[in-house]
Amino acid sequence: SQPVSTSSQAEDDAIAALKLLAQQPNINPHRIFVLGHSLGAFAAPRIAAHDSRVAGTILLAAPATFDLDTVVRQTRYLARIEHATPQQTQAALAPIEAARDAIARADPKHPPTGEFFHAPASYWLSLRGYDPIAESKTLKQPILVLQGTGDYQVTPTADFAKWQAAFTRDPRVTLKEYPGLSHLFMAAGDPPSPADYAKAGHVDARVMADIAAWIAAQP
Question: How confident is the model at residue 111 (pLDDT cuts 50, 70, 90)?
Answer without folding.
Answer: confident
